[in-house]
Request: fold
Amino acid sequence: MIMNSSTSANDASFDMDEVEELSWKMLDNHISDTDLQRLEKLLQNDADSRQRYLDCVKLHCELNAFFRPASRNPESSLRSTPTGMLPQNLSASSSNSLQR
Reply:
């Protein structure tokens, strides 16, 4: 049993690493169609994955805001944030997520 719980923890850690890697590829506009489909599947099926994705998006936006020249309109970047990947009714704490 210890091996199963350890394996399960390793799988969850791998999934979070994969979500983060795919999220950054998407945010950097370097994601393949296959990887994008994989990311969408991970986000649809797991609240922790959605939270990791949102954390990446938030950091991406914060970094853009920090390094953006002061002359740019601060609201312009908010209109183009990549949160459109998640349906409006789907959030990190969505009740549609899988039960553990």
About this structure: The longest helix spans residues 2-27. Residues 22 and 39 are 6 Å apart (CA to CA).
